[in-house]
Amino acid sequence: xxxxxxxxxxxxxxxxxxxxxxxxxxxxxxxxxxxxxxxxxxxxxxxxxxxxxxxxxxxxxxxxxxxxxxxxxxxxxxxxxxxxxxxxxxxxxxxxxxxxxxxxxxxxxxxxxxxxxxxxxxxxxxxxxxxxxxxxxxxxxxxxxxxxxxxxxxxxxxxxxxxxxxxxxxxxxxxxxxxxxxxxxxxxxxxxxxxxxxx
Length: 199
Prior knowledge:
By secondary structure, the protein is mostly helical. It contains 7 helices and no strands. The chain has helices spanning 2-11, 13-22, 36-60, 66-97, 104-135, 139-168, 172-192. The relative contact order is 0.15.
């Protein structure tokens, strides 16, 4: 059931987020004010995001062997997840101070729909990386293709996030500021975890 909801979120992110953010769960909360169905949905969205980013990180370091692939996959997921988890509270706090109508649950849902889309877009970029890895297996090629992939996916994620937040009624200037913060922290963490250390 959660997987079908993920596909629905990918097809219609604005309508999906608005519908699920406004509908109160029928079940009693089990943790942090979230119901069991919330936890399942948020878990499925998080898992697809983590899987896609991990797969790309592993594929990027495939030429270094299985051990490097495993570490790069884990590092990519940790960097992306860390950037999201450390910057999301700032979006909620600043939004609350500026009178944003979004609840923490709605904000969490909108951001998870966005990162799930981004993770699956990264997964779709793996064949492009493999094509260039087989035809031009050089460090510069890997770096350029990866930077272009991350930039393209980042732009698509930004578009999805802004549309979802607009559908939920969040202030647009705050969403743009958060995207900038997320990009800066994410780039720093990818550097720290050595994702682009391709020598």
